[in-house]
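Researcher: Please predict.
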Amino acid sequence: MSPFWQSFFFIAAAELGDKSQLLSLAFAARFSARTVLTGIGVATLLVQLLSVTLGELVGLALPQFWVAIGAGLAFLGFGLWTLREDTQEDEAIKPRLRLGPFLTVVTAFALAELGDKTMLATVALASQHRAFVPVWLGSALGMAAANGLAILVGSLAGHRLPERAIRYGVVALFILTGLLTIGRAFL
C-alpha cells in the first residue's frame, strides 16, 4: 500500500471515536459546518506537518530496523491506548470564544491533537516511509475525512452508533499492524 493511502487509512481509523471527533460534533452544533471543517482542515495540516517532520527526523537518525521495531511497538501501544476511554476532561479543548469561530476551532483542534495518538501514529508512519508529502497529505486528509464523517453521521444518527464495536475494531487494526510491522523488521 502506498504511503499516502496507508497514512490516510490508519489516521482515519485512529480518529474514530477520538476526543477530537467529539470536539468536531460540539463545534458543529455551535458554528456552521463550513467554518468547522475549514478550521479542522487548517489545524490538521499544521499538526500533521509537525508530525511528519518529527517522523522524518527520527527515520533519518535511526537505523531502519530500530525504526520498524519502534513503529511496531508504537502501533501496539496505540491499540492499547484506544482501549481506554477518554474519561478525563481536557481543558485545552474548551477555549473561550474570544478568537472568533474559525480561530477557536483551529486553536482548540490543534491543541486537542498535540501529543494525541493520531499525531504519534503519523510520526511512526513518517519515520517508516520517509515520504514526506504523501504521508503528510494522507494523514491530514484521513483526519479531516474522519472528522467530517463524524459531523455528518453525528447529525444524522445521533447516539445510535455502536461506539464499543468501532473502538474494538480500531484496537484490532492497530495491534495487527504492530505485529506485522515488528515481524517484517526481522525478515
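Model: Residues 24 and 151 are 6 Å apart (CA to CA).
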